[in-house]
Amino acid sequence: MPVLRIGAAALAAAVVLCTFPGCASDIEEADATERILLFSGVDLSRTSGFLFGGFVWSPHGINAGGFAMKTLAGGGVYRYRSGAQQIIGRQVLNSVMPGWRFKFRPPDIA
Predict the structure, then answer these.
(1) Is the four-CA dihedral 82, 87, 10, 36 of positive or negative sign?
(2) pLDDT by residue (tens digit) across 53-94?
(3) Is 37 helix (H, G, I), strand (E, B) or coil?
(4) Where are the domains of the chain?
(5) 63 touches 36 (CB < 8 A)
(6) Which residues is 56 bridged to in the sheet?
(7) How many Å apart are CA 40 and CA 50, to the nearest integer?
(8) What's the pTM value of the predicted model, to 2 decimals?
(9) Which own/partner contact pairs does 90-93 have at CB distance under 8 Å and 24+ positions apart?
(10) Are 76 and 47 in contact (CB under 8 A)?
(11) Roughly how many angstroms between the first and final C-alpha of the chain, as a whole number?
């Protein structure tokens, strides 16, 4: 079943991606700025299953304003009934989104 293979591959990729930054940050110097934020997710239901993951990279640091690049990849399968016919669909997503982050400091509350 392709859904199980896709799910197993995405789970393995998520485990590898989520454990890698911890190992890399131990090696880097203590004052290094975090520049990459990894994310992943799963959306499962009785009639569909989707997996996605990606990262946000910012050369000046994740918590700073300025240029940022976000990538997103994912895919899944869904099914539903339309009258007497069963519809089965597959979806694949890949996005690269450059952008600019605006950071505002909240006012001090005394």
Answers:
(1) negative
(2) 999 999 988 888 899 999 999 999 999 999 999 999 999 999
(3) strand
(4) 2-101
(5) no
(6) 37, 70
(7) 11
(8) 0.61
(9) 91/50, 93/52
(10) no
(11) 60
CA 86 – CA 80 distance, rounded (Å) = 6
DSSP notation for 42-66? EEE-SSEEEEEEEEEE-TT-TTS-E
Sign of CA dihedral 3, 6, 8, 14: negative
> 67: helix, coil or strand?
strand
**Dihedral pair phi/psi, residue 10, rounded to 5°:** -70, -40
Give the separation between CA 35 and CA 63, rounded to whole angstroms.
Answer: 9
Q: Are 60 and 69 within 8 A, CB to CB?
A: no
79 within 8 A of 47, measured Cβ to Cβ: yes
Give the pLDDT of residue 4: 56
Q: What is the DSSP string of 73-110?
A: EEEEEEEEEETTEEEEEEEEEEEEEEEEE---PPPPP-
Which strand (E) or helix (H) includes residue 36?
strand 36-44
